[in-house]
Model the fold of this input.
Amino acid sequence: MRAPAPPGTSVSDIAVDARGLCKTFCQRQRSEKLSQVFANLFRPQVRLVAALRQIDLQVRRGEIVAYAGPNGAGKSTTVKILSGILAPDAGQVRVLGLDPIADRVEYVGRIGVVFGQRTELWWDHPVAASFEWKRVVWEIPRPRYEHMLGQVRELLGLDEFFHSLTRELSLGQRMRADLGLALLHEPEVLFLDEPTIGVDVLAKRHILEFILELNRTRRVTVMLTSHDMDELEQLAGRIVLIDRGQLAFDGDFDQLRRRFADRRRLRLQTRSSEAPQLQGAQLLGSEGGWHEYRFDAGRTEIVALLEEARSHSPILDVETHRAPIDEVIADIYQQWRQ
Amino acid sequence: MGAEWFARLLRLWGVYSRMEFMWMTRDLRFFCHCFFCDAIVNLAAVSGTFLLAERFAGLGMWSKPQVVFLLGYGMLVGGLINTLFGCNVLYVSRRLGRGQLDHTLIQPQPLWLSLLTEGFMPISGSAILLPAAGLLWWAGAELGLDPGAGWWALFAMEILASATIATAFSYLWGSLAFWAPRAAEEISSSALRIVYQLTPFPLDGSGPLLIGGLLSVLPIGFVAWYPCRFLLGLSPSPCDGALTPLAALFFALAAGLTFAKGKKHYARTGSSRYLSFGHRS
Done:
C-alpha cells in the first residue's frame, strides 16, 4: 500500500523547505499556595518551552512524509507554521517557493490543511453547503469544481451523508468530508494533522487509500502527523521523528528499525510445553506449546536461537516476523524519556 | 481592480446570504420563532425609553416623535451591524478567545474581506431592520419631515458612521482577546451591551464631563443621540454633522491598528485553546 519513493531530487523539486526553525512558548507556572498569591500576582513564574529547536526539513514534490513524535514533541506547531497560522521565532520557511505568512493569500490557495481535532465544515449546514461555500471563497472554476467534487464524493464515499447536517455526522464521516473539502481546490501540498484521530478501522482505510490514490494520480505532496504508526508506515515512504522540538530521525521505516535495533518476534512450537530459555531473546509468553520471544536480529542470529531451542526440545513449527512499528516507536520514546 | 473586488464582495455576500436563507428556512416553525422573537426582543429593548417619552410627552428637549426617531435610528444601526457581522464576526473576542481565527487565516483572501462578508445575515438582520424602518417612518410622518435627496445622503452617511463606531468599539475591546483569550472571550459582547443599553436615551442635560466621556472614551453618544440631533435640526451648529463621520474614521483607525497589533501577537503565540461551539452556526 505504501507510496513509491519519488525519483531523484533537484532544487525545484523541493515542495517544503524549512531551515533552522525555532519556536518557544511561555507557560505560566502557578502555585496553589495562598502564601504565594502576591508572588503570583506581581512576579508570575514563566517557564519557557522550546517547541521547536533548529528544525531542518525538506520535502520533495510528490513525497508522502510521516511526521511523528510523542505528545508535546512539536508536531502540531510545525504544521501550524507550515500552514501560515503561526510564525517561527527564528528560521526560514518556504513552501512551493512562498513564505506562508508574507504570501498568505496566494499560499493558502495552493495548500490544503486538515486538523483532525477541528472541522472546516459549517456546523449547522449540510455538507453540500460547505462544499459550495468553498467553491465561492476559493474561486474554483465551475468545471474544475464539478470534476473534483465528483471524484471526492466517489472516492471518499460522501454520497450517503452529503446532504446531512455536519453536526449530525459521525466522526469518521466528518473526517472524510473534511478531507474532501480540503482537496476541492486541488492543493499541491496537503498538511494533515492527525487526520484519522478517533476514526474507526473502515473509515480509516477509506481515508488512507484516498490519500495514496491522490498522491499517485496527482502527485500531491503529503505531510501527515499521527500517533498510529501502522497507519504512517502504510502511507509514507519516509518518516521524520521529532522529540522535544528536535529532529531525532529522518529516513525510511526500515532504516528506523535498523537504527533503533532490528526487533523481531520468534514463535516456536515445541514438543515440550515448557518454554526453553534462549540466550539473547526475551520470552514474551507461552500457550499450548507455542512460545513467543522478542530478540534483536542485529545482535542475535535466528539460526543460533533455533539451535539452542532444539537442544532443549524438538521443534515442531516456527514463525518469525518483525516487531510491529508501534512497538519499535514506543521503545524509542521510552529511550528518549530515559 | 476596484470593480473586481466589488464583484467578489457581492459574490461572497451572495453565498453567505444563501446559506443563511437555507438555514432559516429549514423549518417553518423555526423560521417564525427566529424572526418574530428577534423583532419582539429588539422592540422590547427600546420600550422603556418609549414609555417614558409617552408618559412625559417627550424627554427633555426631545418631543415624543423625536424620541421615536432616535429609537428607530439606534435600532437601524444595531440592525445594520447585526446584518453585516453575524456569526460572531461582530463579537470578535469570541472567535479569538475560542481559537477560531485559524479558520479565517486559511482562506485565500485578505482577512478584512473575510470579516466583512462571513457574518452577512440579511434574513435574521431584517428582523431588526424592518421594525426600525417602521419606527423611523412613523416618527418622520409625525414630525412632518419632508426630506430631500441631500437629507437622505446625510442620513446614510450618519448611519454608516454610527455603525462603524459601534463595530470599531467592539473590535477595539475585542482585540484584547489576542492577549488574554480566555479572560477576554466575552469582552466584545460586554462592550456592545453598554452601547445598546445607553443608545436609546437622549443625553442632553447631562454634564459636559459625562457628555465628553460618552463622545470619546465610551463613544455611545455617536451611535444615535448625536447624529439624530443633527438630522432633526436640534444641534446648534450645522458642522455637527461632520463630527460623527470624523469620529468613525478615528475609531476605525484605532480599532484597525489594535487588531493588526493583536494579529501580530497571535502569529507569534497562536492559540492553544480551540472550542468548536459557536463556530459557523
Notes: Chain B is about 70% helix and 0% strand.
